[in-house]
Amino acid sequence: MEDFGLRAGPAAVLLLEVIALVWIGKKTVEILARIRFDREVAVKDNPAAGIALAGFYLALFTALSGLFTEKADTLAREALLTALHGAGAIAALLLSAGLWRPLVQVDFRKDILEGRNAGAALVAAAALIATGLVYRGAVHGQAENVALIAAFFAIGEGALLLCFLLYEWMTPYDVYDEIAGRSNLAAALGSAGMVLASGLVIGNAVEGEFLGWETSIRDAFLYMTPVLAMPLVRVFIAGGMFMGFGRLTREIVEDRNVAAGLVEGAAYVGIALFAVHLLA
Predict the structure, then answer these.
(1) How far apart are alpha carbons 93 and 150 in whole angstroms?
(2) What is the rounded distance in angstroms from the CA atom of residue 106 to the CA atom of residue 102?
(3) Dist CA 265 CA 280 (whole Å)
(4) Which terminus of the chain has a lower count of CB atoms within 10 Å, N or C?
(5) Cα separation of 246 and 240, whole Å?
(6) pTM for the model
């Protein structure tokens, strides 16, 4: 309780700073996209805009949470690091959105603002949160080493982009056409689960003590290997044990069964959580 009392005051200050940084991140997106989220959510009642905005918020909170695992010398030092990484995390999220958008074929203005496509927004939100997890892993314990953070974030984000391609390959249908073209929420739920699961595994892989470039990079790739099991999760767990063999694709593509999409997404996230804790 004594430690809690000593940390409660500085923690409250840093929390307020993080909230301010999240607000700055929202305003940055609004300026770049020339929109007003308040109007989209409260006036137009656009659920897709709300989902995307919530994903951005959670991504920033997640990214910055990696800073607060070690005690800095002073509150001023912690506040400075938080401010710097707030700007870095906002830039990383915006950069990542530009990289994965062509892969998932989701256009922010066309699909989310104009089309009000909740499934497209859900996949975008999951991609942002996954990027936040990767940033969190890269910054954990290395908050002052910009070179290490940049290198391992780049490695992790590159691996995350490959996971988008892996998911497209392992599904027997055009998953991103289902999401963006046909507004299939069931397909979006499965895809979002896969993206979040990948973010959990990759974020854990790029986290840890730096032991030299060769060793740390090798270890990062080794700890990413659980994502290669995701096709097996789809076939034998989500599409087998959980839903019955041969039914998952039909339920998602033909029936657009949201419950089936939830089951698929939950299977990916559940296996990823287990893998992360097993390998921690």
Answers:
(1) 13
(2) 7
(3) 23
(4) N
(5) 7
(6) 0.93
